[in-house]
Prior knowledge:
- Two copies of one chain form a homodimer.
- Chain A is an alpha/beta fold and 546 residues long.
- Chain A folds into two domains: 8-250, 4-Layer Sandwich (Nitrilase/N-carbamoyl-D-aminoacid amidohydrolase); 268-464, Rossmann fold.
- In chain A, 40% of the residues lie in helices and 18% in strands.
- Chain A contains 19 helices and 19 strands.
- The first copy, chain A, has helices at 2-6, 22-38, 66-80, 159-166, 184-199, 246-250, 266-284, 298-311, 328-341, 351-365, 372-393, 403-408, 429-442, 448-452, 465-468, 472-484, 489-494, 499-511, 513-517, and strands spanning 9-14, 44-46, 85-94, 97-106, 109-115, 139-142, 145-151, 171-176, 203-207, 209-212, 215-218, 222-224, 230-233, 240-245, 290-294, 316-320, 344-347, 396-399, 421-422.
- In chain A, the strands form four sheets. A six-stranded mixed beta sheet of chain A has the order 5-4-3-2-1-14. Chain A has a six-stranded mixed beta sheet with strand order 6-7-8-9-12-13.
- In chain A, helix 12 links the parallel strand 18 (396-399) and strand 19 (421-422).
- The longest helix of chain A has 22 residues, at 372-393.
- At the A-B interface, helix 7, helix 10 and helix 11 of A face helix 7, helix 10 and helix 11 of B.
Amino acid sequence: MVTRMTQLKVAFAQIDCLVGDIPGNVDKVIEAAETAKTKYNADLVIFPELTLTGYPPEDLLLRASLQVRVEKALERILYTVKDIALVIGFPWREQGKLFNCAAFIDGGEIKAKYRKKCLPNYQVFDEKRYFEPGSDTVVLPWRGFNLGVSICEDVWEEEPIAATAAAGADFIVNINASPYDIAKLQQRRTLVQSRAVTNSVPILYVNMIGGQDELIFDGGSFAVNRHGRVCFSAPQFEEGIFLLELNDVIHGEGQETAEPAPTMAVEASIYKALVTGVRDYVNKNRFKSVVIGLSGGIDSAVTLAVAVDAIGADRVRAVMMPFRYTSQMSLEDAEAEAKALGVQYEVVPIEPIYDQFMGALNPLFAGLDRDTTEENIQARIRGVILMGISNKTGALVLTTGNKSEMAVGYATLYGDMAGGYDVLKDVFKTMVFRLAWYRNTLSPVIPERVITRPPSAELAPDQKDEDSLPPYEILDEILSLYVEHDVSADGIVAKGFDKETVYRVVRLVDINEYKRRQAPIGARITMRGFGRDRRYPITSGWKLGE
Amino acid sequence: MVTRMTQLKVAFAQIDCLVGDIPGNVDKVIEAAETAKTKYNADLVIFPELTLTGYPPEDLLLRASLQVRVEKALERILYTVKDIALVIGFPWREQGKLFNCAAFIDGGEIKAKYRKKCLPNYQVFDEKRYFEPGSDTVVLPWRGFNLGVSICEDVWEEEPIAATAAAGADFIVNINASPYDIAKLQQRRTLVQSRAVTNSVPILYVNMIGGQDELIFDGGSFAVNRHGRVCFSAPQFEEGIFLLELNDVIHGEGQETAEPAPTMAVEASIYKALVTGVRDYVNKNRFKSVVIGLSGGIDSAVTLAVAVDAIGADRVRAVMMPFRYTSQMSLEDAEAEAKALGVQYEVVPIEPIYDQFMGALNPLFAGLDRDTTEENIQARIRGVILMGISNKTGALVLTTGNKSEMAVGYATLYGDMAGGYDVLKDVFKTMVFRLAWYRNTLSPVIPERVITRPPSAELAPDQKDEDSLPPYEILDEILSLYVEHDVSADGIVAKGFDKETVYRVVRLVDINEYKRRQAPIGARITMRGFGRDRRYPITSGWKLGE
């Protein structure tokens, strides 16, 4: 028996499940199980949380036929996969209650069903909208070991792992749909290490991969032995089947076994997350191509590079739409970027359209001063042109607004905000610069002066962003404190920032909720993105200050 | 004692609390308490759920200074209001947990604090994102009676009222922030009647009033005696203090006491809800005025009427933006509506702007057929013009898309969908017709042929909505079944609808999630609006059918 035990292999199926596509996800499960068996000779293949529906299925979980669909899916898996054991996740309704379940399947039979105990209902999560919490621990014998099962959030609280270990588990499979953010990989590892040590039990952590609307699942599956040693890790941002020798985990010591894959530099990690987001949004929604308005500025330059890296230059089209305030430098740089990346490039001047708009509006604007209205009209003309190309060709418009702009409303609704997916939505401007430098280390595609020149929207003569906003180094720090860390305006001032600046910035964040509510979605890469993560009322009498 | 008891008066403070404005809401509480005492000689004044923060405060509940702000607010109330008892609602943090609380205050002291037991986390509600459930029943002696307290959802489940009655309550004050929908008033009454009878206890149900983003609180507070008799009811859609003789409720029989206010016809009720929504969105967000694109069609006609009824003709501006496909009839009718309602009216032809756009785009469109792209450009030019007026004058753009259009995506993003608030967002087209007839019974403002002509977007020659959509009678029935009642496509077909039509409609609903995600908010008037109520992924592989 001992000999047999030492040879057990576990395949981590770090796969990309398409939300709602239950039959398609079953195909993926069956394919992964066959690969795990035939190619790797694995004994057990473990899949991410809610494998069959993808994550998060949102209100699809409320559709009446969900249970029938899941039952059919399970039947097909039980009938097809007989020579390898599986742990898979799915929603399951019984006695009128819906549970977030994991099943341990062996020999074509469901041996045990585990119901997730801890339901996250914070940040981007709404699991209490759908699920009831489970209460039973699952530990069952398998090939001479006691296998325990838990699901995602269960490992973030104490009870489930403690109870499973107490019930005699030799190792615990924890299946996850844990979305990426900058700090998440380290957070997961530290947490799971601590649980493993506290309960002296190895934990196998398998995570989903792929972009789903604003969420990016980064994979990065890993295993920790009872001493808290990460003794196996799968790559981030890479779909695949990754093999673990169970013996290494169960019998491993604190110091032995292979080194885990090194964690990436933050710029590389974010860049890969953005690429994943674009690629999956475009492909899963079956867009053949994308179109981007190039301005010669850094946001559209980085957006273009991400798009090309995500889906290839032949599926990307760039349009420069100059106006009287567009500098020669911008025209040159936009063209240089497009050429360097090898995308289709067109120039559509907007001057004649602008003149017609102003001719129509001047009688209505009589006696009123020139203000940002005229700037917004330029941005909106560009939006109409890009959307025209989108409607005519089926290309998705990618927008280029960064997190700093989305925060303070430095963007035009129906103008530069017009499009289906905002690549940099959760990336502060200071990080956009770092991403540009990083991308150029791979191959020089962004002209250096795009990175070094002072940012400008070029919507008015000699305009600079810093005419209306604090320097981005300051702005982004204030925004990070307020938006991502919930520090109040007075709390930020107490950290040494200028009071007037802080109050102005915080007020801009507060009053621009209406813009963000109509903004395109974009990849979440921080612990607090604008989207499901941050739910503020538009109508609000909250006074800033303490 | 009996003599004293028979004279007790309870004031229902059916007030409009502005979300987040804690000091302002305290002012309202103090004012209402003073009015209740001095004008009505009331002994107790009861306020809606989360009186101090308004409802729903959403992520404002997560701000660090919330507790300090609430404590200050309570101090001010305790210090100021001494000669009348109160029941008010507020969030309260203790031992690291946030509760949705109601306090009974008497003589400037908090006599008891009740923590909401049942936290709704479905439909538009997210209370489990913020609150922990309470577990204690509150019944306390007051002027010879035992007064029980409960909060909103507590009355929708069995335990809280049963426990409070079992603890000896002579009557229960249930404080609410219950949002309006067409069927809600009757539902609330039937439910509370049943709870009162089952537990043989009178229930005083006080509700909030006013619009908060997409939610409309309709008031309609009422009281039910132990026999299930509605023996008091405050009007819907009217802010105010309404007085109840407690004796009538506590000693009332099944048949006695005054008739409750009659419930309104559905058209009148919806119309009032829409007016409330517009009025409060505009005023609470401090817009001085609104601007509406008038097309000569029924949606913009009804929108205009609602806007004028909400904030007055002097704050409403209408703009007709004709194109070559705009009929003479539309021009005449738009002008007639504007005149009948007395609003500022302008005509801005879009032909020259359109020609410039097409001139710019034609080289890019070479060899491609004419399609809806050209129609969308017309709609988007109108959007740019309205937004220009909005930016220049500070007027809010009201959009006019109805629920049928929002469902199937029969609307142009950044075109007719450009604006801050969509008045008819949750109103099916067939109901828009009924609202038009209803509004004309008050005073004839919508030309009859606007109601009787076949609906057309007038974006192409001789276009009719029914060229691309099923007749609205059929469309709306299918949409109601699919969107509001979660019936599957096959389930709808089984009810006798044409399969091809059903599949086409359901598919349109599914694939247009991306449009709705960028749509302006609008008043929710049904049990399933597009908004907080219906949370579907954009990226989805769900197959329609069963």
